[in-house]
Amino acid sequence: MPIGIIFSQDFSDIDNKIVNFNFKEAKVYLEELDKNSDKNIEVLTRLSIVHHFLSESAEDKSTERKNAIKAFEYIEKAYTINPKNPKVLKWYVIALGKTVEKKSIRKQIEESKNIEKIALSVIELLPNDEYCYNILGQWHYRLADLNGPSRKIASFLFSEPPEGSFIEAQFFLEQSIKINPDYIGTYYWLGKTYLKINKKQKAIELFKVGIALDRPFKREEEAYQAMKSYLNKL
Prior knowledge:
The protein is an all-alpha fold. It has 12 helices and no strands.
């Protein structure tokens, strides 16, 4: 995800480090603040953000997972203090989604309704923030793309299984790209969605724009490579 973060002036030095990708330096300062603060949600939320991006920029899977878990632990503490704070909710759903994305299909489906519920509440509170539009777009795509065995798991887990829709995925991803047209990941997911709904030319156009965008972390590099592969095949 892009680092479009607005912070209070009290944390301006730390926030500048985060915006400039100095995550390890920011973490040192935040950990010191955390030792001397009484469950400060501003500190906890920033610690979650720092660990999220340390996870995104990790060179090995062990470090990636370790930081993803830490990101969730910190934001979960902030969530218990103030579960209605929009920024806390936003980073809670981001951290939750990242911790479950590598788990079993069963676990992903179990968490899917919770992710949808929180993401929708964040959109109501932060209608001009692209993050949760992106998350919901991916949520709908993944559920709509479930195969037969995975759908059976969903039916076992829920009396009313979560339903995904490629049309809904298109809507949320298009909203995300309107707010932030510079994030490569949205082009990847929206392009894949267009392919699912037989809009091949629109997918090609989107992929061509997407591969020219910045790719600061491994996730974005993977999106870039996938879009290049699609363009070679289409």
